[in-house]
Design brief:
Radius of gyration: 20 Å
Distance between the termini: 13 Å
Order of helices and strands: HHHEEHHHHH
CATH class: Mainly Alpha
Number of strands: 2
CATH superfamily: Heme oxygenase-like
Protein name: Thiaminase-2/PQQC domain-containing protein
CATH architecture: Up-down Bundle
Helix content: 55-70%
Largest sheet: 2 strands, antiparallel
Number of helices: 8
CATH topology: Heme Oxygenase, Chain A
């Protein structure tokens, strides 16, 4: 399951060894780096109408501003998150470098050097696993010109709410095993630093705020009923795609 994977239970009980945690974190960092471009693509979809100071803002104007604020917050958060990754890695001796393409547990695929570049509409890296690359490709698709802001925000909310629920599930195991550097296979990185950060009330409030913008954007979908159903149907398909990828993003344990 995307939010109750066995990896999460072992993480909550301090049983994830450093090599496995390092491999997963290296992929999560690639995901986070692609997230930056995804936020940029979503921001480019926002159109703030020109209005005089005396004009009364419409609901669509208000929602656009809310979406803009959320996306700016998301960029700020991900910059903090990337620094957090590096600081905790140094503190606990975790290796966030590239995985070996021969490592079965990392499931890397090797890409020729000439393909190791950013192409229009697609980000490639020779350290991404197939699932990580699929996630990156989904972000680029959800941010493309053919995709609405609503759909892109649904993808953003889906990724964040799955992540929050997953780590809150892991947090439920924190008190079920002895704590401490000697007791934890990773020295305590997950239970002391990562899990509290990813299951926090602050993160939960951020996810809720994204959900509110999604609801407001959905309320503003106009046109014929059939057209509305088509758009909302695409949103459901995006949600299902995120859940499918999330379940497979966790390492086998």
């Amino acid at each position: 399951n995307a939010t109750t994977h066995p990896f999460l239970r072992l993480a909550g009980t301090g049983k994830i060894p450093k090599p496995l945690l390092s491999q997963w974190l290296s992929q999560d960092r690639l995901y986070a780096q692609s997230y930056v471009r995804f936020m940029g693509l979503l921001l480019s979809k926002i159109r703030l109408p020109c209005a005089t100071p005396t004009s009364t803002p419409t609901s669509s104007t208000s929602t656009s501003k809310q979406a803009m604020n959320i996306l700016i917050d998301a960029l700020t958060n991900i910059r903090t998150e990337l620094d957090f990754f590096e600081n905790v890695a140094v503190e606990y001796g975790l290796d966030l470098g590239p995985c070996s393409s021969s490592s079965s547990s990392c499931s890397s695929r090797e890409i020729p050097e000439e393909e190791e570049k950013e192409e229009e509409g697609k980000f490639t890296t020779n350290t991404a696993t197939p699932i990580t690359q699929a996630y990156i490709d989904m972000f680029m698709s959800a941010g493309s010109a053919a995709t609405s802001l609503l759909e892109g925000m649904v993808v953003l909310w889906a990724t964040e709410v799955c992540y929050l629920r997953a780590w809150r599930y892991a947090a439920g195991f924190l008190d079920s095993a002895p704590a401490g550097a000697d007791a934890d296979a990773d020295g305590g990185a997950l239970r002391n630093r990562f899990i509290p950060n990813w299951s926090s009330a602050e993160f939960g409030a951020f996810v809720d705020a994204i959900g509110e913008v999604v609801d407001d954007l959905a309320e503003e979908v106009g046109g014929e009923e059939k057209k509305k159903e088509e758009i909302l149907g695409r949103c459901v398909r995006w949600w299902k795609q995120v859940v499918w990828l999330e379940e497979r993003f966790w390492p086998d344990v």
